[in-house]
Amino acid sequence: MTPEAGVFAYNAAILARERKIIWHDRSHSMPLSEYFDDAKEFFESEEFEQEVSDLVKSVSIPPTGGDGVCGKGESWENSPFDCRRKVLLIAFQLHIEEVVERKPYDSDRALFEKYADTLDRLASVFEKHGAKISIQTEKNFAIADVKFGRYILKELKERGHGVGVQSHMGHHIRELHLNTDEEKLLYTLGVKEAVSRAIGCEPTNIGGGFEMENVNLLGVVEGGLGFTSMTAVEKPYNARTGKAPKWLHPWILPPTQMMDLSDPSWLAHDPGGSIVYIPGWYANEVGFEIDCRKDENCFELATQSLYRALENVDCRFINVWWFSSHLYQTGRDEEEVERVLEAYDKWLTEVVDPLVKQGKVKWMTFDEIAELYLKWEKERCLFTSALAHKSVGSFPLANCPKGPLVLLALVGLAVGTEHTSRQRAQP
Predict the structure, then answer these.
(1) Which percentage of the chain shows pLDDT scores above 70?
(2) Which of 171, 228, 245, 297 is most buried, with most CB under 10 Å away?
(3) What are the residues facing 93 on neighbouring strands?
(4) Considering only CA atoms, which of 280, 261, 278 is closest in space to residue 376?
(5) What's the pLDDT at 416?
(6) What pLDDT, in 10s, does the model give residues 390-399?
(7) What is the distance between the alpha carbons of residues 72 and 62, in angstroms, rounded to a whole number?
């Protein structure tokens, strides 16, 4: 099978309530058992149990969640696998670096207060549109927030925005001699603790800090840092591979290295993994940052990326898109800040608000996206595990005399229609 055919078959199979095997053998006739003894044993085994991690187990779903039917008491919000919805979840990632204007945030109160005010004003622009910011900050801004008694991060979290960690560890590996995963974890832990003190609870989202031999150590695992979701690999991935990130659906990262992003092992979904990757900047090839200080067309690439993502939304999955910027890119002086804020307001009004009204997109923080995705994944695991316990003998076989050897999960029309009609029949 081609990779495209494999993806199609998988996408169909995960929602299949029934399966049919169509047997094609062009060159000679061989019994099905000679090809598929192992597959039959797998599906007939009563001992099969799909491994899921503590991360997946941590979320709550309705009692009947994962049966493939959107039943009473279920909705897209609490049962996203059963109750499908064609919508693109969108987010705005805002990074706050260690320094600004060549000074650490915690070294100058006036400097910190200026940018804290700018952050507050930017958040207000988003709130005007019912939108949310997902802030990821390095430790200096968080330390200053507590040191100078402002607590802007805690306030914004209470206003509905997301506050997580930005680990700039990758920029400091050589200078700080961070050679082992243990040393790298200690660096990121220091950032997490600073943010925890600023917001009054543990942050669960991280941007960066992925340069590990085992990236799962950042997640919900024994000895790990307890983050549930990660973002911000698109730009370094593009720089390393020259490829556009064409990922629209979150996945759970496997316990693998991410030092070399050209090694695709980190792109494999692992239901036993410990941290969710939330993709963004769909199909983008350059920039990866919104900077309206001097560019009148600063949202052009983001708009193109957003529209490409919308073209590929699939109701069977959780669909995600985010764009990003840095706090310092919001402006240095009052005139610049005002111009940048007006650009955000204009873009949200003209591009995003109509999509929200049409029901095509929905604003969420990274934490909210991760929770919804984990509900979807928990239900998917329950659904596929239940199917695995069914005997393969119950699946009808069809024989075709000619053509290449293929396996098809026939669900797209008959089963998909049944699922939709049963969902609509619910009160």
Answers:
(1) 79
(2) 228
(3) 134, 324
(4) 278
(5) 32
(6) 644 443 333 3
(7) 10
Average pLDDT of span 350-366: 99
Identity at 286, one-letter amino acid code:
V
The reported pTM is 0.83
Task: Find the range with the poorest average confidence among 22-31, 174-183, 295-304.
Answer: 22-31
Q: What is the helix (H) or strand (E) element at residue 193, kind and residue range?
A: helix 181-199
CATH code for the structural domain at 88-379: 3.20.20.370
Residue 61's SS3 state is coil
Name residue 225's amino acid.
L
Residue spans of the domains in the chain: they are: 88-379
Distance of alpha carbon 123 from alpha carbon 348, whole angstroms: 13
- Residue the block writes with tokens 């005010």: 117
If you ran DSSP here, which 8-state letter would residue 71 be given?
Answer: -
Give the burial class of 411: count Cβ atoms within 10 A of its Cβ; 0-12 exposed, 13-18 middle, 19 or more buried. buried
CB 332 within 8 A of CB 103: no
pLDDT at position 21 is 57
**Secondary structure of 371-391 in the HEC alphabet?**
HHHHHHHHHHHHHHHHHHCCC
Let me know: does 323 contact 95? Beta carbons within 8 Å. no
Neighbours of 102 (CB within 10 A): 5
Contact between 92 and 280 under an 8 Å Cβ cutoff? The reply is no
Task: Please tell me the distance from the alpha carbon of residue 193 to that of residue 198, in angstroms, as a whole number.
Answer: 9
Gyration radius (Cα) of the chain, Å: 24
What residues pair up with 252 in beta bridges, in sequence order? 276
96 DSSP β-pair partners: 137
Round to whole Å and give the CA distance between 312 and 315.
10
Question: Among 307, 216, 313, 227, which Cα is nearest to 268's?
Answer: 216
In the 8-state DSSP scheme, what is residue 253?
P
Distances (CA, A) of 212 to 125, 266, 425: 36, 11, 49
**Measured CA distances, 36 to 1, 23, 31, 42, 366 (Å):** 16, 11, 9, 10, 42
- Report the C-alpha gap between 279 and 263 in whole angstroms: 17
What are the angstrom distances between the C-alpha of 53 and each of 38, 150, 169?
A: 26, 38, 26
- Please tell me what DSSP assigns to residue 14: T
pLDDT digits (tens, 9 = 90+) for 159-170: 999 999 999 998
pLDDT tens-digit readout, 166-203: 999 988 999 999 999 999 999 999 999 999 999 999 99
